[in-house]
Amino acid sequence: MIKIRTALISVFDKTGVLDLAKNLAKNQVQIISSGGTAKYLKENNIKVTEVSEYTGFNEIFDGRVKTLHPKIHAGILARGKSDESELKKIGAKKIDLVVANLYPFADEVADEKSTEKSIIEKIDIGGPAMIRAAAKNYKYTVVVTHPQQYQQLSFDEISEKESKVLAADAFDLTCNYDLDVSNWFLNNSIGHTSIKLRYGENPHQDGFLHVGEDAPIDFLNPLQGKEISYNNVSDSLAAWACVQEFNEPSVCIVKHTNPCGVASSKDILESYKKAFQTDPTSAFGGVIACNNEIDKKTANYMINNQFIEVLVAPSYTKEATEILQSKPNIRVLRSNHNEIDIFENRIVNGIGLVQSSDTEDFSSMEFKHVTKISPTPEQLGDLIFAMKVAKHAKSNAIVLAKNKMTLGVGVGQMSRVISTKIAFLKAEEEGLDVKGCVLASDAFFPFRDNIDFAASKGVSHIIQPGGSVKDEEVIKAADENNLSMTFTGVRHFKH
Questions:
Q1: Residue 210 catalytic?
Q2: What is the pLDDT of residues 383-406, one digit of tens each?
Q3: CA distances from 28 to 5, 321, 404 (A)
């Protein structure tokens, strides 16, 4: 059992803390407190020993350092009689109860008026340190982190079992707090600006944009165009990420975060024409990303060829900028030369998901040709091109390509064979010649049906990760259909 004789109170949220302090005082519990909490309790006639008075060490750095002192943490971490002599040596007392909650970090991040400085100052250091120390020492120290727990406290004795439950709640608090801080740093490692969007994915949803200084696209300073939307941002980032895969002048047209046309060639205009040719219907109202400067000729051709929601490029000539201004609703954005972030981060229903980004380098990949026929260097170039596009399409992704131009893209299906059929359907709708084309799959083929169907349509070469229990059956199907098949050993599944 834990008898409460000395309590340390340091809270940002002061809900209910005055009544708690009154009950502690009534039960002859010595109260140690700091900063605003100590001031608040004194103003309400509660006898308090300030931390600085107890430690003999004044707060420094505008309160950044106040509870980080050996007399505080020794008192919290002391283990009964076994540590009494050492406590006496440093003039410290056993602290039996820690009452603490944390700076509202998440609220500060959500505040549109917040700055990097204000957010960083809301990263609590002393609070989590005290809470974790008390929770670790639950057999000898009670920790309370929520106002609703105040009523549960017994001012006589608290059992070890009760203390352990409170300790679990404390670790849960610090865990979620650290996750909030980590998520902010992953997205805003240098700095950020937050703006409210018109709405989210749909008009009934709220939408917000948080932009770090290392963002790959300058959303805050558009060259022209209507207000940026939530979906515009998603599509622009998807198009930019895809086009970064290529060294040659390349264009990616995106619709609903999926590439509907991608091409590489000698210049941006030629690449755009080929990318558009893949799927003109889907390209209407799409987002276009380029990896090279847009000149006068390209800008003029684009605006007269289709309706554009967003155009992204690293730069624009003066003449191109003037031409684009004739279509004032087009959102024209500049991309930066930043690399893909090393982490991808999502929060869904209070659950944080973090993974390293898919930055696999195709130039260093070991390709394994598993069929009797092997692709030529030129054909392998098309295979790699197609796989780079598949990498940025939603699974199950199938990409048909020839001469570094997509012919058909099948995405987002529950069945891979359906994605394969859709890719060919799109090519056929546009009258594109698929004979001799290559096919890329973002993950392995579970059955030979995809191979037989692709062969019947004129595919000559296939690239896929491999790794299925049916690999032998799939390779056999390729050989029977006189196809080459290349394994990459790397899956690019985009859920």
A1: no
A2: 999 999 999 999 999 999 999 999
A3: 7, 76, 81
**What pLDDT does residue 189 have?**
46
Residue 112 region by backbone torsions, left for phi larger than 0, else alpha for psi between -120 and 50, else beta? alpha
| Helix, strand, coil percentages, rounded to 5, for the chain | 40, 20, 40
pTM here is 0.64
276 in a structural domain: yes
User: What pLDDT score was predicted for residue 246?
Assistant: 96
Average pLDDT taken over every residue of the chain: 91
Token readout for 216 is 């790959």
Q: Strand pairing partners for 494?
A: none
Please compute the mean of the pLDDT values over residues 21-31 and round it to a whole number.
Answer: 90
Q: Which of 22, 210, 256, 273 is catalytic?
A: 256
Q: Is 448 left (phi over 0), alpha (psi -120 to 50) or beta?
A: alpha
> Do 126 and 51 share a domain, yes or no?
yes
Max Cα-Cα span within the chain: 91
Please say whether the beta carbons of 439 and 415 come within 8 A: no
CATH number of residue 271's parent domain: 3.40.140.20
Please indicate, yes or no, whether residues 280 and 145 belong to a single structural domain of this protein.
Answer: no
Alpha-carbon gap, residue 16 to 298, rounded angstroms:
66
Task: Check: CB of residue 253 under 8 Å from CB of residue 283.
Answer: yes
CA–CA gap between residue 273 and residue 262 (Å, rounded)? 10
Of 395, 378, 347, 1, the C-alpha closest to 176 is 347
- Residue 234 has a pLDDT of 96
* The pair of three-digit structure tokens given for residue 170, joined into one six-digit string: 């404390």
- The domain that holds 170 is classified in CATH as 3.40.50.1380
pLDDT exceeds 70 at position 190: no
Residue 136: active-site member: yes
Give the span between the Cα atoms of 102 and 178, in whole angstroms: 11
Return contacts of 449-455, CB within 8 angstroms, 24+ apart. 449/417, 450/398, 450/416, 450/417, 450/420, 451/477, 451/478, 451/481, 451/483, 452/477, 452/481, 453/417, 453/420, 453/421, 453/424, 454/420, 454/424, 454/483, 455/481, 455/482, 455/483
Using CA atoms, how far residue 162 sits from 29, 144, 151, 152, 157, in Å, is 19, 11, 13, 9, 10
pLDDT one-digit tens code per residue, 303-358: 999 999 999 999 999 999 999 999 999 999 999 877 777 778 777 787 888 888 88
Tell me which of 14, 136, 210, 226 is the catalytic residue. 136
Residue 210, domain member (yes or no): no
Token pair in block for residue 419: 């994605």
State in Å, rounded, how far the first CA of the chain is from the last one: 51
How confident is the model over 107-159, as pLDDT tens digits?
888 787 888 888 888 888 888 999 999 999 999 999 999 888 888 777 778 88
Structural domain harbouring 328 = 220-334
Per-residue tokens: 311: 């155009």
